[in-house]
Amino acid sequence: MENEEKNQTEQSDKSRSMWRELWDYAKIIIAVFVIAFLLGHFVYINARVPSGSMEETIMTGDRVFGNRLAYIKDDPERFDIVIFKYPDDPSQLFVKRVIGLPGETVNIVDGKVYINDSEEPLDDSFCPETPEGSFGPYTVPEGCYFMLGDNRNHSMDSRYWQNPFVEEDAIEAEVAVRYWPLNKIGTVK
Question: Is the pLDDT of residue 31 over 90?
Answer without folding.
Answer: no
